[in-house]
Amino acid sequence: MATQEDTNRRKEFQKRTNEDIDSFLSKNEFSKTQAASKPSTSSSSYSSSAPAEQPRKAEAEEKESEPKAVDHDEQIRAARSSRAEAEAYHDVAVLRKKAHALDHKAAKFYHKYRANEAKAQKCSAKAVAYREKAALHRERARDGRGKAKEYETELAGAAQGKTELSPESLRTKMATMERKAAKQEEISRRNESKAASQTAKGAKFKSRAAKFLEQNKLFESESVRYAKRADNLEKAGV
Length: 238
What we know:
single chain, 96% helix, rod-shaped
């Protein structure tokens, strides 16, 4: 009994497996036929639509290429305008630099002019002081000579016995006053000489100051000229 049941089970199993294999094979064949038929339809549709798509692509490429050319021209114009602006700015900067350099030189010469003017004024003040001292000593010398003349008149009276002083003492006083007058005269002349030397120094400093002032004015005029050129260039650029 056991062997018959086993054989029946084997037969049923083989039958089921054979039916399953047949159904699997039939499904595979059906799918292969469908796959083979689809490319043919797609290729036919592609072949029919390809000529229509080609002019569309060419039109799209032309439309894309036209804006690119326009953008390229605009970029060239923008680059040229920016280069012109940069060159104008460079020219203005160079002119400003020259103007400031000349203005700096003018300021240096003006400082030298003022320094020499101050030295000339100082020399002039010293000369005035020396002249005042010379005048003072000249006045003292004049007083000494006047006293010497007085002693001389007294000496003439002593010879006639009109004064109590002896002629020798009067001559001594007269010589002393003349010596003092000569000393004051010498100091006065020395102060006048110092005043003259200070006046000469002042004149030298004055001439230097005039030269430096001339240089100052020249550099100032050049600086103003370059500054005006820079201003005009900036206005033209604006």
